[in-house]
Every structure is written in C-alpha cells, then in structure tokens.
Amino acid sequence: MAKVFGNIEPQDDYTHELGPEENFNESMYFNFFDQSNGYGGFMRCGNRANEGNAEVTLCLFLPTGEVLFNYAKPHIDNNDAMDAGGMRFEVIEPLEKHHTTYKGDAVFLTKPEQMADPGTAFRENPHKKIELDLIQEAVGPVYGFAAREQANESPEQQFAKAHYEQHMKATGTLTIDGETIQINGTGLRDHSWGPRYWQALHSYRWLTCTFGPDFGLMVSEVSAEKGVRRQNGCVVRDGDKFERIVSFDIESEYVPDTLFHKSMKADLRLEGGDTLVLEGTVKGFIPLRNRRAGMVTHIGEGMTEYPCEGRTAYGISEYLDQVE
C-alpha cells in the first residue's frame, strides 16, 4: 500500500455514507497527460445523491489545440458507486490502483473558449464518440486529511470535509470516433467528500504536474474570502518521499479583459528551506462555469507545460474565481 501523509485509510478510497446535508458531494477526479504524444485531460464524477444527480465531466486536450468536452447531470439516488453518465471509477486496490472508464460522446471544440457560453457551444459544434479506458496506478504517496467529526460551520460555507491527492501513472486507450490512441501518461487524482457548493470560496489556484514516477508536485492556494489566502502544496520524489511547500508567490498572465489564464510563475519555499521555481505555459484551455442562486463561478482549466529542475512535462492549472 502507498505511504500515507495524513489520516487517510484504505477504506476511504471507496464511497462513504451519504451525509444529511442537501449539498453533500462525493467526488473523484483523475487527470492524465501523455508526455510523448501530447494527449491529456481529466475525468470527474461528483455524486450529489441528496439532490438526485451526479456531475460528470470529461475534458480531453488534443495535441493540436482542440478540446473534447462533455458535462452531464445524470440521475442518481444513492452514493454506492462512482458510476453515472457513461463514466465509471472502480477501486482495484485501495490507495494503489484504479480502473477509470468513459463511454459516450463529447463536443469537439476547435475554439474551446466558446465554452464560456456552453449552450451555444454544444449546439453549434460537432460531437464525437469517445471511449476512454485507463488503469491508474500510484507513483507517489497519498496526502490529505479527513475530518471524522461533524464540522461546526454551515454546510453552505463548506467545501468538503475530507480531501486527499496522489500522483499517478495512467495507461490504456483513448478512442475518438473509432480511432484508438495508446495512452502511457502521468497525472494526479483527488478524492473528496462532504458538503460543497462551488460558490463557498472566493477563489483558488491549483497547479499539478507529475514529471515521472520519481518526481511530482502540487501547489494550492485557496481564498475563502477576498484577501485571505491559505497556501499548501508538496513535492514528492522516488515514490514515497514527501516535502511540504510552506509558502509561495504566484504571478499569472491572462488573456486581456478575461479570466482566462495564459501562464504563471511560482516561487516555492519548502519546509526544509530549499526553494523551487515553477513556471507554466498553457497549451490548451477551456473556460467552465457553475451557477447557483444568481452566482456564477468561473473555473479555467489549462493543460500546462511546466519546466522545473531541468525537466519539462504537461500537467494541469485550474483557476477558480467568482464572477463579480
């Protein structure tokens, strides 16, 4: 079993008892990037059984800049499995190995920025048949925490009571309209559960990259309210070595007059006193949104090329902001 930094247990890799909160959400997320052929993307399934639906997201970045995307809210009435809308996540060995699949369609976007208006984007662009079949295996430790007791704050103000992440390798196939591409990539997964509204936070920045089985990193900055930043992150090496990132500064460049990020630079300070410089250039981008109670949340997803320590690899940069 993978080494654990935090209080996560093997049984946490499965779904949990459905909480009483209307906005109880359990979600699993896997990203992957094939460094040899330029294909990458992520899969997410979020169970909101008390609301009667799951949130199923597929996002595939193509090496030529196009994006294949699908989002659905299929009906569910329990939290027994991650299996909805053509997407299925199966635990083969807890904290070590997962099987992730998707079978369905996705809209083909030559101009992914059109997803800022999703209704029009889905209507006015062609759709392709997708089959994704990947084995996800751990290449690093599990890190994260689960709150085992009820939180004091209102469910509307929470953004999951448990959350952990792990660097992975992904192998398998991606089939687009009958054409099959072999995937041999690296990535990261996360798993969270508890009450969640996307509007509970003011903003966050999340940068992840797995350069290989011997080196990966994650950078997270969360602002529950404007002007208040909570930073954390880690560098993992050689499968089980873990060093926390204690603070950092991020400088980001945006497409003018938008929230669409183009590049970033982060000076990372590690708990042992060392420093790292992480730079990123977005190679594929799609703007997503979530709406509730008159609020609009922007989530920018960027397939990002990261050079660090003399190595270069693809990873993800995810920026969340509430639209004023």
Q: Give the amount of beta strand, in percent.
A: over 45%
Order of secondary-structure elements: EEEEEEEEHEEEEEEEEEEE
Fraction of helical residues: under 10%
User: Span from first to last CA?
Assistant: 45 Å
**Tally of helical segments:** 1
Mean pLDDT: 94
Structural class: mainly beta
The CATH architecture designation is Beta Barrel
Strand order of the largest sheet: 2-3-4-5-8-9-10-11
The radius of gyration computed from the alpha-carbon positions, rounded to a whole number of angstroms, is 18 Å
| CATH topology title | AttH-like fold
Question: Describe it for me?
Answer:
The chain has one helix and 19 strands. With 324 residues, it is mainly β. It has one domain: AttH-like domain (AttH-like fold, Beta Barrel), CATH 2.40.370.10. The model has no long low-confidence stretch (mean pLDDT 94).
